[in-house]
TrEMBL record:
Tryptophan synthase beta chain-like PALP domain ranges (all copies): 12-310
Domain of life according to the entry: Bacteria
Matches recorded under CDD domains: CBS_like
Keywords from the UniProt entry: Pyridoxal phosphate
InterPro entries xrefs: Cys_Synth/Cystath_Beta-Synth, TrpB-like_PALP, TrpB-like_PALP_sf
Source organism (scientific name): Paenimyroides tangerinum
Pfam families: PALP
Cofactor: pyridoxal 5'-phosphate
UniProt-recorded name of the protein: Cysteine synthase family protein
Membership in a protein family: Belongs to the cysteine synthase/cystathionine beta-synthase family.
GO biological process: cysteine metabolic process; serine family amino acid metabolic process; sulfur compound biosynthetic process
Length: 344
């Protein structure tokens, strides 16, 4: 038999088809079967690779992008990294307008991936011409053939997950999934995945995870924007102070809120017990699972899929730093001796 070279054409080939991994330890005492969709297996280490690739390829299909075109977005987070990665392979310029609140590490990481980063003042309103929203919008409007990803208000964000994450989970669970639990930021992940899954089986329960300090849960319940819900919180990438159109609130049955503190401890617990080094929102998602289990949501026949959006390495100076945890007061209610004993 002739042996062929087994190689991928490029890194974009590796986007999607992430593994579903059974959770065995962190689930002790919970009724049901629990599986994590581990999005850190994407080459850019997060679920955002899916939307970056999909939105850029849709623009190519529509003939908007030409070699050397620019792609604009307003994030220093996972989406920025994914867009930078896709842009390198496809030969576009990636321009990211971020706020001066973004950490130096994040900005360095984006520049390392070839992005041009504009650091804009954080203390100005969104409609100020210096704000990162205004800068991105202006760059897009003034540049022919540019694409503005605009993830919070782009229907293609939902579509990316409808076409990939949903079908993958349906196949991986052999259609036996009973519950989907996912954090909601732009809402693209949960909405697109839920739309696909509910078309296959409308009885699947879809539960979104929101942060205290965010308006999403209240909006889902009342369909009204309540600004009194808004206050600062620590978890990055989930919850919001506005209502994104990339969230299909009708596809979500319920929202659960989790605290910064419990989400941080749960992420650390997942890393230590499952050997899965996960990001902050993965902790939030599994914290929601624990709360739902306490409320009697699951039984022995439940097959629960929980989305773990990114990798722990992005949170070394946050939840994986004992100093940071201490500064937040997150160790105040924890017996450190007990925590230490678990470590060895
Ligand atoms: N977790 C992390 C770490 C994220 O960066 C995001 C994206 N903002 C989410 C969760 C939420 O995903 P989505 O935007 O698709 O709702």
């Amino acid at each position: 038999m002739k042996e062929e070279i087994q190689a991928h054409d490029d890194i974009l080939d590796l986007i999607g088809n992430t593994p579903l991994v059974r959770l065995r330890k962190v689930t002790e005492g919970l009724e049901g079967n629990f599986y994590a969709k581990v999005e850190a297996f994407n080459p850019g280490h997060s679920s955002k690779d899916r939307i970056a690739l999909h939105i850029i390829e849709e623009a190519e299909r529509k003939g908007i992008l030409k070699p050397g075109s620019i792609i604009v977005e307003t994030t220093s987070g996972n989406t920025g990294f994914s867009i930078a990665m896709v842009s390198i392979i496809k030969g576009y310029e990636c321009v990211l307008a971020v706020t001066s609140k973004s950490s130096k590490d994040k900005i360095d990481m984006l520049r390392a991936m070839g992005a041009k980063v504009y650091v804009c003042p954080a203390n100005v309103s969104a409609d100020d011409p210096r704000s990162y929203y205004s800068v991105a919008k202006r760059l897009h409007e003034e540049t022919n053939g540019s694409v503005y990803i605009n993830q919070y208000f782009n229907e293609l964000n939902i579509d990316a997950h409808y076409q990939t994450t949903g079908p993958e989970i349906w196949k991986q669970t052999a259609g036996k999934i009973t519950h989907l639990i996912a954090c909601s930021g732009t809402g693209g992940t949960i909405s697109g995945t839920a739309r696909f899954l509910k078309e296959q089986n409308p009885n699947i329960r879809v539960i979104g995870v929101d942060a205290f300090g965010s308006v999403l849960k209240k909006f889902h319940e009342t369909r009204e924007f309540d600004s009194s819900e808004i206050y600062p919180y620590r978890i990055e990438g989930m919850g919001k102070n506005l209502i994104p159109t990339a969230t299909d609130f009708d596809a979500i049955d319920e929202f659960v809120k989790v605290t910064d503190e419990e989400a941080a401890h749960t992420a650390r617990q997942i890393s230590k017990t499952e050997g899965l080094f996960v990001g902050y929102t993965s902790g939030a998602a599994f914290q929601a699972v624990k709360q739902l289990a306490e409320g009697g949501e699951f039984d022995a026949n439940s097959n629960v899929v929980v989305i773990f959006p990114d990798h722990g390495s992005r949170y070394m100076s946050k939840i994986y730093s004992d100093d940071w945890m201490n500064e937040q007061g997150f160790f105040d209610n924890v017996n450190r001796e007990e925590e230490k004993q678990i470590e060895f």
